[in-house]
């Protein structure tokens, strides 16, 4: 609701606090009075908007269904967007300060932009007048805080009725969750003297209340306790009312009323509960708990009397579930497809015998169930509505095609959006804006942590916290908070255990998209419903059917993200001509060979993604993009960066490389890019992948003290000492890729001091003395290590065994010896082991007790390894094995006499030497999916 205002207010502060006016110079003296008035007026508007924002923050989430308030708020948003346009236009014009090197250019810019400057006073006056009218309108129609109590009670009543519905569900209607119900039952019946606090958490609509009520109503369980109470807290509970409700359920209501319960304060009410429960074995359910604060006083009320009492909490918040005693936590999951289908048929075909779906509806019923993605609330609600629809294919098809509309507008489906909206309305404004942005990705898209963080930062949605904390780290905190609130699901973690990808439930995405469009935050195009984008859309993702889009009516876009890769380049060049104030431009996988001309005029641009395109050259005019933070050129054809790139002093992430060898078996598997300018100007750079080394470059690197990730190619011995010195000036360096210039070049690590925060190290090239450097013993935080063409003469495994945090280990032509030995106790955290192209290796010895957590083993090109290593049978956690270009004798034994060694491995892939393309395709898909998320596969042409 207040998200647009939140972003605008920050932007106002930044625009007026950066001294932009002073930077314009004397060449714009004619407009100085205008700018002074503009600054004064904008500060006044900032004050007005601050008050409006405070008001909206207080009442917007409690005003559902108030049409007058919604209409008024819509106009407030329009004003906020107007202010944003004025500010961004201001930034756009000031960025075009005239080139003082040319008299004619100075005069041209003055004439060209003078009219635009002159518009500001009238625009600001109009905004001021609109704000004044909004204030008057609010008073005229009584849209005030005085309505808060009434609307709160209304919402609380609606919330209780939903909880009551779940509570009253008959056990015969419950499908799935048998393990959860059995665990709950066991915990409630177990003989344990201490009071036990049990938590059940998960996103809204998963059935937390339903399964809790099933055990709460179980007669065997009820008889096990002296007294019971069930209360729903919701977001708007009143402490005194909550305590009175508990007392009324525990104690005879007439006696509690007679004792003056209604006049007692909170402390007295707690004492009443304490006194009553002092010698009783009780069971109390606290349904729908939103924060820990509620437990602070309830903890005192529910006495610890060593009678074996139980307290059950249901919550959407993971931090609330942490209140539970020890491991007494159940995380609810969505139903699997079979369970979803059974539940849907129970509801949709309740009138038919055995709840069987008619043959003519199976296809559409399948699509509807799939859309629900195992969310019981959606399955039950949609199934119940369809139970009284005609059993005609056309009727069900029409319902499915209009499902998004039904969720937004059909009162019968209001429960779905209401339950899911509760989580959204509970978000603070900074998180809400970020979450709305997530809805712009396609269905089932695995959202990469690094990608979404950069997009949020580019859009100004992430706050600066200071104290050496980067905005990327703050964005990661936002993501984790969204997962704690059960709004995003972590689908993959990296080697360090950090979340790598996130998923948004389809129906949560539908509800969020509806809100994003309603609040003019953004929209996703591609569902085939319209050929026009709403003028108000500030952020647009185009997922399919871009060619049917007639035009972009709005030139006010801030984000343009293209997922549709089938559109011709001419369409992209045409549509980009309407961009002006863009901050994010993502053309990943687009069919273009050159950068659209308009790009270099986008002075507000922060994020530019041209990865996986056919772009070959970055124009020198990129120097105009002074606000650019991210430039992503991965898998493009760019092999040289112009000198002018060094003028982009706000650049934080620069990615430019091509993968020539997806299997990464060659020394030059990555293409290297020439960097012509003086890189020391890019002092804000945090990630740089990958550039060609030279003596000047490696000397300049010492100035990049913010660097977190660096990939550097074609390193030579003649300047390696300077490189090591520069690396030690990067205290936060955690990822380092370092490639020698050729197979004969020696990488001497003796002069390199320890890099204390290094977690990923990829060394490609001969190591001095053919031994693992002694420095490796100081790399305590390393989780991923890859060594290529190292020329090692001694078994490196023992020298690496001290790396207790190692998760991924890959050796490519690293060792010239015959035997590798893995001793018991070594590599306790290793998950992936890759042994590639070590032509003399004929024995791999694996003791019982080593590699205790290994899940993936890859053996490639080990042409002298004839027998399957006997010790693989000890790797009990191994669930994937990849074999590429292995000797025929090895494969024959694998399938024959040595089959018993690998019989416990469920997934074995074998690619022979003639299957190199199949191996490339398989590994390429895995690589792209891991690096870029499912979208890299689902939304890209075959590569």
TrEMBL record:
Residues 440-510 form the Disease resistance protein winged helix domain. This is AAA+ ATPase domain-containing protein. PANTHER family: DISEASE RESISTANCE PROTEIN RP, OS07G0186500 PROTEIN. Belongs to the disease resistance NB-LRR family. GO terms for biological process: defense response to bacterium; innate immune response-activating signaling pathway; plant-type hypersensitive response. Residues 556-876 form the Disease resistance R13L4/SHOC-2-like LRR domain. Signal peptide: none annotated. It comes from the Eukaryota.
């Amino acid at each position: 609701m207040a998200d647009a205002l939140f972003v605008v207010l920050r932007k106002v502060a930044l625009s007026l606090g950066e001294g932009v006016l002073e930077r314009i110079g004397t060449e714009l003296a004619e407009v100085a009075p205008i700018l002074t008035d503009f600054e004064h007026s904008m500060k006044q508007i900032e004050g007005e908007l601050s008050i409006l924002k405070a008001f909206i923050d207080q009442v917007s989430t409690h005003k559902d269904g108030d049409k007058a308030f919604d209409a008024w708020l819509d106009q407030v948003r329009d004003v906020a967007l107007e202010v944003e346009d004025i500010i961004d236009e201001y930034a756009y014009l000031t960025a075009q300060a005239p080139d003082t090197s040319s008299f004619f250019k100075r005069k041209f810019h003055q004439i060209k932009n003078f009219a635009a400057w002159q518009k500001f006073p009238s625009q600001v006056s109009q905004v001021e007048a609109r704000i004044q009218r909004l204030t008057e309108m609010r008073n005229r129609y009584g849209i005030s805080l005085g309505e808060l109590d009434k609307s709160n009670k209304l919402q609380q009543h609606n919330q209780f009725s939903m909880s009551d519905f779940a509570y009253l569900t008959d056990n015969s209607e419950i499908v799935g969750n048998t393990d959860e119900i059995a665990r709950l039952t066991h915990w409630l019946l177990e003989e344990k003297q201490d009071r036990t606090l049990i938590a059940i958490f998960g996103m809204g609509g998963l059935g937390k209340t339903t399964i809790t009520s099933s055990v709460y109503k179980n007669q065997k369980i009820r008889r096990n306790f002296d007294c019971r109470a069930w209360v729903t807290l919701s977001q708007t509970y009143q402490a005194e009312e909550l305590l009175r409700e508990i007392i009324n359920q525990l104690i005879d209501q007439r006696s509690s009323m007679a004792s003056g319960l209604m006049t007692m304060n909170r402390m007295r009410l707690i004492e009443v509960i304490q006194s009553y429960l002092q010698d009783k074995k009780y069971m109390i359910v606290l349904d729908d708990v939103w924060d820990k604060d509620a437990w602070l006083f309830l903890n005192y009320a529910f006495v610890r009397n060593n009678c074996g009492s139980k307290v059950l909490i249901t919550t959407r918040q993971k931090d609330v579930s942490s209140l539970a005693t020890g491991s007494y936590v159940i995380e609810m999951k969505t139903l699997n497809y079979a369970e979803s289908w059974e539940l849907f048929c129970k509801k949709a075909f309740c009138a038919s015998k055995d709840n069987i779906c008619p043959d003519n509806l199976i296809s559409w019923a399948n699509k509807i169930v799939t859309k629900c993605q195992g969310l019981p609330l959606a399955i039950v609600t949609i199934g119940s509505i369809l139970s009284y629809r005609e059993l005609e294919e056309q009727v069900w098809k029409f319902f499915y095609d209009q499902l998004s509309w039904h969720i937004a507008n059909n009162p019968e489906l209001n429960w779905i959006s209401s339950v899911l909206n509760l989580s959204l309305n509970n978000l603070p404004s900074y998180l809400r804006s970020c979450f709305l942005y997530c809805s712009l990705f396609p269905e089932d898209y695995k959202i990469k942590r690094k990608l979404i963080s950069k997009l949020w930062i580019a859009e100004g949605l992430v706050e600066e916290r200071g104290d050496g904390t980067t905005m990327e780290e703050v964005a990661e905190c936002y993501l984790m908070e969204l997962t704690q609130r059960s709004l995003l699901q972590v689908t993959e973690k990296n080697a360090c255990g950090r979340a790598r990808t996130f998923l948004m439930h389809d129906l949560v995405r539908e509800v969020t998209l509806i809100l994003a469009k309603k609040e003019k935050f953004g929209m996703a195009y591609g569902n085939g419903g319209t050929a026009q984008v709403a003028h108000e859309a500030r952020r647009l993702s185009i997922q399919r059917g871009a060619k049917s889009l007639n035009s972009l009516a709005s030139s006010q876009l801030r984000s343009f993200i293209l997922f549709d890769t089938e559109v011709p380049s001419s369409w992209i060049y045409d549509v980009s001509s309407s961009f002006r104030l863009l901050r994010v431009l993502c053309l990943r996988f687009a069919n273009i060979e050159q950068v659209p001309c308009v790009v270099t005029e986008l002075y507000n641009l922060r994020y530019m993604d041209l990865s996986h395109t056919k772009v070959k050259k970055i124009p020198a005019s990129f120097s105009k993009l002074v606000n650019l933070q991210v430039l992503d050129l991965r898998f493009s054809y760019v092999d040289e960066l112009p000198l002018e790139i060094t003028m982009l002093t706000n650049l934080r992430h620069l990615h430019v490389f091509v993968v020539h060898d997806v299997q990464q078996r060659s020394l030059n598997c990555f293409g290297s890019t020439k960097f012509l300018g003086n890189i020391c100007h890019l002092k804000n750079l945090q990630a740089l992948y990958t550039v060609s080394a030279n003596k000047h470059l490696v000397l300049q690197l010492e100035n990049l003290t913010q660097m977190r990730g660096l990939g550097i190619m074609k390193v030579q011995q003649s300047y390696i000492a300077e490189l090591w010195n520069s690396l030690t000036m990067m205290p936060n360096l955690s990822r380092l890729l370092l490639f020698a210039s050729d197979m004969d070049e020696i990488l001497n690590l003796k002069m390199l001091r320890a890099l204390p925060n290094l977690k990923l190290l990829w060394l490609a090239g001969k190591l001095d003395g053919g031994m693992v450097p002694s420095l490796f013993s100081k790399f305590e935080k390393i989780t991923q290590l890859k060594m290529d063409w190292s020329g090692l003469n001694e078994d490196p495994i023992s020298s690496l065994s001290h790396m207790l945090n190692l998760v991924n280990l890959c050796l490519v032509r690293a060792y010239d010896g015959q035997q590798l030995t893995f001793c018991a106790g070594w590599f306790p955290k290793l998950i992936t082991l890759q042994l590639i192209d070590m032509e003399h290796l004929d024995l791999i010895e694996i003791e019982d007790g080593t590699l205790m957590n290994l899940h993936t083993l890859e053996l490639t090109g080990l042409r002298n390894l004839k027998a399957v290593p006997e010790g693989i049978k000890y790797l009990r956690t191994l669930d994937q094995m990849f074999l590429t270009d292995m000797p025929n004798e090895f494969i024959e034994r694998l399938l024959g006499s040595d089959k018993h060694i690998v019989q416990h491995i469920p997934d074995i892939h074998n690619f022979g030497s003639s299957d190199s393309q199949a191996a490339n395709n398989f590994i390429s898909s895995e690589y792209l999916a891991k690096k870029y998320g499912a979208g890299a596969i689902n939304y890209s042409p075959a590569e």
